[in-house]
Amino acid sequence: MLTYLIRRLFAVAVMLIVVILAVFCIFFLIPKWTGQDPALLFVGKQADAAAIEGVREKLGLGEPILVQVMEFIKGLFVGRTYTGGGDTIECAAPCFGYSFRTQQAVWPILLDRLPVTLTLALGAAFVWLLIGLSVGVLSALKRGTLWDRFAMTVALAGVSLPVYFTGLISLAIFAYQLGWVNNAFTEFGEDPAAWFSGMILPWITLAFLFGAMYARMTRASMLEVMGEDYIRTARAKGLGERAVIGKHAMRSTMTPVLTLLGIDLGALMGGAILTETTFSLPGLGQEVLRAINSKDLPIILAVTLITATAVVVANLFVDLLYAVIDPRVRLT
Asked: What would the DSSP string read from start to end of 184-231?
């Protein structure tokens, strides 16, 4: 297990380096190759020539590419000092950049919004796993029954309906008409009960989309696994149906579920823009939307890097769970 862990950690370290280099290329090199001025993109088109030149000096765009890359990576781990244009800006680690529009370091802005996105993603993931796995397994075990047809019809609707539609409908019914839940976001420290009431609908709305996909995938995987020889052997040995499903079938069924979970959960760390906008949640998705509208490139760069890193880290945990569920994975 230790050897497997070391191999995976090394692979993650390499992947993180690749991610950082890819993000640097997207935001700094590709604009230059396409004839655009990266300094102009970072400071905005309304800036004067002196401001643009100051940003160019601060970002070190006149330095060799290797120096720029090293400064970019250095800022992520130990911080960075932006010097140029007659002033000096200190950006503490982790320095994801500096917004020249708001005159603020990017990381404190995102750190203030990260807990909302993290709470939304983890809460919704718990709900969609609970619903998706339960519905998928029951549908596979009751294949062809009325329950199976009904569950898969609801799952198809969940996959097809956009989040903003189900979100607005749920708000109109449960928040405005029935008044069962809070329709405004409240900080947990201010009122835990109001916070929970305000997060129920976002969790369920986001989980409805993902839970539908997980239910369909779990059903397909379970149907395939239930036809394997080792399942028939387990039954022939006299094991009860609960043991056959829980100890044998679910192990193989969970493999594709965990794969998809690592990707989905990691991607949601960058913000669920539609869900956060529908329910007015002050998370990363809302901040990204604001940055896109105002063309605040450092915010977009930082969230891109955070999202990519979250996907890589989430897949590391998925790989470790693989080794727990199926010990044969440790040999690969």
From this structure: S---TTT-HHHHHHHHHHHHHHHHHHHHHHHHHHHHHHHHHHTTSHHH
> Which residue carries 């009960």 as its tokens?
193
Q: Which segments of 45-190 does DSSP mark as H helices, in order?
A: 49-59, 65-78, 106-141, 146-160, 163-170
Cα(156)–Cα(152) distance, rounded to whole angstroms?
Answer: 6
Residue 203's CB is within 10 A of a number of other CB atoms, namely 22
Q: What is the DSSP letter of 47?
A: S
CA–CA gap between residue 176 and residue 168 (Å, rounded) = 10
| pLDDT in the model for residue 84 | 77
Omega of the bond leading into 94 within 30 degrees of 0 (cis)? yes
Position 144: which residue type? G
Regions of the chain with pLDDT less than 50: none
Structural domains in the chain plus CATH codes: 2-95 (no CATH), 107-331 (1.10.3720.10)
Read off the pLDDT of residues 261-296 as tens digits, 9 standing for 90 and up: 888 888 887 768 888 888 888 988 888 888 888 888
pLDDT of residue 46: 67
Residue position matching structure tokens 């690592």 = 262
Q: What is the pTM of this model?
A: 0.84
